Amino acid sequence: MKKRILALVLALLLIVPMLAACGDDGSKKSDGGKTETKKTVETVDPEISELDNYVDEIAASHNYEGVTFNYIGRTDDNFPTEEEITGSLISDAVYSRQRELEEKFGLDWENIITEDGDHTQDDVIQNVMAGQNAYDLVYGNMITVGQRLVVGNVVMDVSDFETLDLSKEWWVQSLDSTFRICNKLYFLTGPIIVNYYVDTSCMLFNKQTAENYNIPNLYELVTNKEWTTDKMFEVASVIPTNETGSGAYRYMTPGGVEWMFTNGMTILQFDEDNKPYVEHQLSVELSALADKMSAVFGNDTQTVHLKYQHGVNEKAEEKYGVDDLSTLFEKGEVLFDFDSTGGISYYRENGVEFGILPLPMGDSSVGEYHSYANSWTGGAIYIPKTVKDVEMVDVVVEAMGALSQKYIKPAYYDKLLKGRSTYDVESRGMIDIIFSSKIYDVIDIFSGGDMNQWGDFMRLLDNSIAVDSSSLASAYAVTAKLTNRNIDNIVKRLEKE
After folding, report:
1. 489 or 472, which is more confident
2. For residues 326 and 304, is the Cβ–Cβ distance under 8 A?
3. Is 208 helix (H, G, I), strand (E, B) or coil?
4. Residue 407 in contact with residue 179, Cβ under 8 Å?
5. How far apart are CA 417 and CA 132, in angstroms?
6. Does residue 220 surpass a pLDDT of 90?
7. How many CA atoms are closer than 13 Å to the CA of 396, on its beta-carbon side?
8. C-alpha distances in angstroms, 10 versus 5, 6, 14, 188?
9. Bridge partners, residue 35, by sequence
10. What residues pair up with 27 in beta bridges, in sequence order?
């Protein structure tokens, strides 16, 4: 990559303050007509300064001048495809991160782009199986990319990396508890992957609809920890059931599994050896949750569904496609839309006035909000087993994580998500709650069915909670048994060197 570009950018950054110092901001006229010079003190963000110092300390003892660091993934904003500043908020942030890494560690970068996501994992698997070391890092979706790489046993356990510090804020703090498989860690995620900011469950409410029906202040309910599932049902009940399909709906296209987390449940469990499993028998609590939620969400007079949601929902009216659902919310014909943080900007760009909320707690006894991170939209990085210089990858990944906190977080989280995508300051506070309550579950890797598709077990849970719980009791034992068998087979594969 061209280092001259970064040098030019840095030069401009140095010149601009000098020019500003020559302008009116540095002086003022006194009543006597004399010029008084006012000293200006440059303020440095302490967090940025700390990040810079941290990376500088790592770089002081590691130099990789002339080495090319190769990474592979789909075409997106997670890693730069541009060789210059373009004016794009996210692309420029990623570019700046890579250029600083290049300057501090002497690295060159090679981004291998796969237009079709399936090619990413196929290329990596073939490369590792052939004993080649073409890639130092892989990035991609946790399901279509991560699942194949982990199940294929071609990515490295990063637990023994010496420089990598999982206690740092640029790594998801639940990695140790929810991403480990038999005490091995194959995933890394956080601001290092841009998709970290798009995968988290949330809900939106149409402000005009809320005003039309005199909906109370929902933000206060959240901050007072009174925002529970029953409170959501109560609030929405002021909208009459839609018997004809021509009025307003209370809810739009809910998912299912995220409601387990809002009720303090997790899907994947771990035994004393950190081996994952799912409960063999349907619990009373899960059965009751599915009955409660599907009675509301599966009711077509209250909830409007996407036709064939997850391929199994045939109750929905055929007229509702993806575009139709978006239009309903835009027109104020739906109060609550269940979405991910990646979908927020769409409505903002289309001029829809909305507020943002975390999904409600199951009840007040849960005590905290839990925001499910969807593995379909979520991304992670993976390290192939055949990397030639493990120490270099260890060092670079940790430095890249820290510089992602410096560049990616302010650009995406602060400016795009909390800034450009919101209508009010209250929503920005809600986003903080949503991300501070973010929770992962790597059950998608083990849930059975076609390895490239959502597993039978997850599909059963999602549909039973969001649409129809009538088949849950009879189907749970069978699908749970198959899922646990699938987990056993995967664990055996991973135990092989």
Report:
1. 472
2. no
3. helix
4. no
5. 40
6. yes
7. 29
8. 9, 6, 6, 31
9. 29
10. 37
Kindly give the interhelix angle for 46-60 and 89-105, rounded to the nearest 10 degrees. Answer: 40
- Taking the model in full, what pTM does it have? 0.84
Q: What are phi and psi of 373, to 5 degrees?
A: -95, 120
Q: Which amino acid is at 298?
A: G
d(CA 400, CA 79): 11
Question: Residue 203, Cβ neighbours under 10 Å: how many?
Answer: 24
Provide the token pair at 346: 């769409």
Distance CA 262, CA 459 (A): 18
Residue 332: name the closest of 217, 442, 213 by CA: 213
- Which residue in the block uniquely carries the two structure tokens 């903080």? 432
pLDDT one-digit tens code per residue, 182-217: 889 998 999 999 889 999 999 999 999 999 999 999
Rounded-to-integer distance, Cα 155 and Cα 60, Å:
29
- 279-303 residue pLDDT tens: 999 999 999 999 999 999 999 899 9
Please state whether beta strands 180-181 and 379-382 pair in parallel, antiparallel, or not at all (unpaired): unpaired
Length of the chain: 497
User: Could you give the CA distance from residue 17 to residue 79 in angstroms, rounded to a whole number?
Assistant: 30
Q: Determine the longest span between alpha carbons in the chain, in angstroms.
A: 90
Tokens of 494: 């991973």
Place of tokens 């599932």: 229
Residue 141 and residue 147 in contact, taking contact as beta carbons nearer than 8 Å: no
CB-side exposure of 274: number of CA atoms within 13 Å? 10
Query: pLDDT, tens digit, for every residue of 266-278?
Result: 899 999 988 999 9
> In the numeric block, which tokens belong to residue 8?
């030019």
